[in-house]
Amino acid sequence: MAVAARVSLEEYLNTSYEPDCDYVDGVLEERNVGKRKHSRTQGRLYAWLAARVPRGYEVLPAQRMQISPSRVRVPDLCVVIEEDEEVVHRTPALCVEVFSPEDRWQRVEIRLRDYLAFGVPTVWVIDPYSSRAWMGTQQTEIAEAKDGILRCAGLNLELRIRDILPEE
Question: Does 12 fall in a domain?
């Protein structure tokens, strides 16, 4: 859903929004955030990833990532090579979206496809409300992790989804 009229990329990049929003072809798009299960899951996943990513990488929550000349996405979490850019321009090793109750699969899938088109090797989606997860790679379609394990070959990670989901 658009939250404002058209704005230039320069204006978007020089403006702070609370919460931050995506910039898609000149239009600001809201991101659904802020519910407790979403926040707890994001925090637990951040801690899990931060303890396991290889040296030279860092885990960033809600980091602006320019994926094309006309699009900036803000994934819930991404794993990037350590650098000092305010806006990520290099392809992350992993992007993660955590479902909120207001999220709709079609909208999340568009974000995931944008990440994959940008060259992100692995994308994860975690739904703490249904205790389900999905993943996709450059070689595979986005599909549910039926075994409950999310994998990221490039970072040598295997996450049992139950390890980071909040208790009921």
Answer: no
The CATH number that applies at residue 141 is 3.90.1570.10
> Which element (helix H / strand E) includes 110?
helix 105-118
CA distance 134 to 1: 23
- Asked if residue 1 belongs to a domain, the reply is no
| Tally of domains within the chain | 1
2 falls in which pLDDT band (50, 70, 90)?
Answer: very low
The answer as to whether 111 is a domain residue is yes
Q: Could you tell me the residue range of the domain that residue 126 belongs to?
A: 32-163
| Whether residue 142 has pLDDT greater than 60 | yes
In angstroms, the CA 95 to CA 78 distance is 4
Q: What is the DSSP string of 111-137?
A: HHHHHHHHT-SEEEEEETTTTEEEEEE
Q: Is 147 helix (H, G, I), strand (E, B) or coil?
A: coil
Distance CA 166, CA 164 (A): 6
Asked if residue 97 lies in contact with residue 111, where contact means CB atoms within 8 angstroms, the answer is: yes
pTM, two decimal places: 0.92
